[in-house]
Amino acid sequence: MQDVLAILEPTDYRFLVGLVESNLNLADDTLLRRHLAAVEKEDTPEHRNAFCLAFEDHLRYLGSSDVAWAVRKVMGQDPGVSFQEIVRDAANALKVDAPRLGTDRERLEELVEAYATKQFAELSPEEQQKMLEDLGVERDKAAAFLARSAGKMALPLMVEAFNLVVVEGLIKTIIFGTIAKIIGRQLTARLFSFLVGRLPWWVTWIGPAAWTLSIGWTALDIQGPAMRKTIPVVLYLGLASLRVKGAERDGA
């Protein structure tokens, strides 16, 4: 997980902390916020490393039951579940195949792309048409693609039919729509408004309209409050990794 966190910006760290903060668990949010404040004040390798380690411990706690975490801690064992298990659990909850190979970054990116493709395919034809038009695709071109695809969606075909910017916008729209469904529109609005002023990539083709998508399930379908935190974190990490990958590809 450290290879994912290390490539992110302090703004990403602020967003992630906003996703996991809670007064209802045994983990220490105060320590996490203190490490975040240190990074925001002075973005040094030492401060980054301290935050990343603290955040991973926090997330691995959230992925465990309180009882199992406490028992393992008392017995001197590593108390948290592995990050790979958290990703597998998220994939199962999102009803996509769990990535089996690759680095943590590659697995997260694969999960996000698979989930976005699945969700787009499950939207009604009218919603698919509207989303593509909102992303800048001409009405006739969008209609022709949807008729040709006959409900079978694949990202490479979409990139070929449109362009990478449109596909990135589709992924961002669906992922933020899902996060909003899980954590609530009010918290999403607050966290997103913080993002857009600092990381312009998020502004392109994404906004509050995404939060009204007819995602095929709601937070009530997720088992337990912990999953309402770990799933948004997994989705955001995968999306942020794609953002960095795009910047690396473009030589930014």
Oligomer: single chain
Mean pLDDT: 82
* Overall tally of domains: 1
How many whole angstroms does the radius of gyration measure?
18 Å
Query: From N to C, what is the helix and strand string?
Result: HHHHHHHHHHHHH
Structural class: mainly alpha
Percent in strands: under 5%
Name a few traits of the molecule.
mainly alpha, globular, 252 residues, single chain
Q: What can you tell me about this protein's structure?
A:
With 252 residues, the chain is mainly alpha-helical. It has 13 helices and no strands. The two termini are 23 Å apart.
Summarize this, please?
With 252 residues, the chain is an all-alpha fold.
SSE layout:
Blueprint: H1 2-5, H2 10-20, H3 29-41, H4 45-62, H5 66-74, H6 83-94, H7 104-122, H8 125-134, H9 139-149, H10 155-161, H11 164-183, H12 185-196, H13 227-250
Helix pairs in contact: 2-3, 2-12, 2-13, 3-4, 6-7, 6-13, 7-11, 7-13, 8-9, 10-11, 11-12, 11-13
